[in-house]
Amino acid sequence: MKSERTSKEHTMLLTDVVVLASAFLTFGSGLVLFFGFHVGEGAFRTSSLGLNRLTWLNLHRLPALMVALGIGLHVALHWRAFVGRCRRSLSRKGGSRDILELLMYVAFWTVALAGMAVWLLIGGSAPLGGPVQLGRLPQVRHHVVDVHNIAGLVAFLLTLHHVCHRWRAMARGLGSAWLGFWEGGTTRRGSHRQSDRRAQRAVSASTEADVR
Q1: Which of 24, 49, 88, 169 is 20 to 30 A from 180 (CA-CA)?
Q2: Alpha carbons 188 and 149: distance in angstroms, whole number
Q3: Which of 52, 60, 30, 49 is nearest to 134 (CA)?
Q4: What is the DSSP string of 35-68?
Q5: DSSP string spanning 154-194?
């Protein structure tokens, strides 16, 4: 039971780390796409900060998929806490922190749905392998991209708030996971040494028996 609990805690922690890393990459590339290619004459640019437009698009879209999968797994692993926060928020028994947590998930799903619509449903999105179409966006696509950008900024700020209230617990979890990994490796190395010594003693005993 203890090992299963530890394994689940490590899975939760690993999921959180992967989601955070992917979220920072998604948000950073999103800022480049917004200021480098979306605003003003950026619609006609082919590159920014040394990378072409398609590379920035894929640096935004692929980590975003990791974030979506990771948050889905995060909610599944923290399902009871998630449902409890939703109930407290909807029943007005929760505090501002519960409401902000719920708004974070609403903002995230708004970002995800708008992003998937821009990528897969509304025409004009570049395939993963290219090519990229230059020029101003059609009006409908432009508005959906604006919703995606604004919701993304809100989701990122709420995510920072979420992490700031949990960074100590995450730091302790990372330290515990690393210590457990190190101790496990030390135990395995120790068991291998004991096995080698037993094997050597067995060989020596066999050799002595042959000599006799």
Answers
A1: 24
A2: 49
A3: 52
A4: IIIISGGGGG-SEETTEEHHHHHHHHHHHHHHHH
A5: HHHHHHHHHHHTTHHHHHHHHHHHHHHHHHHHHHHHHHHHH
Residue 65 near residue 128 (C-beta atoms within 8 A): no
What is this structure's pTM? Answer: 0.69
2-26 pLDDT, tens per residue? 555 566 667 777 777 888 889 889 9
pLDDT at site 29 = 92
Q: In this structure, what DSSP letter does residue 136 have?
A: P
CB 115 within 8 A of CB 62: no
The per-residue pLDDT for range 122-153, each reduced to its tens digit, is: 877 778 787 787 777 777 888 888 899 999 99
If you search the block for the tokens 């003003």, which residue do you land on? 40
Classify 126 as helix, strand or coil: coil
CB 100 within 8 A of CB 164: no
- Tokens 């696509």 sit on residue: 141
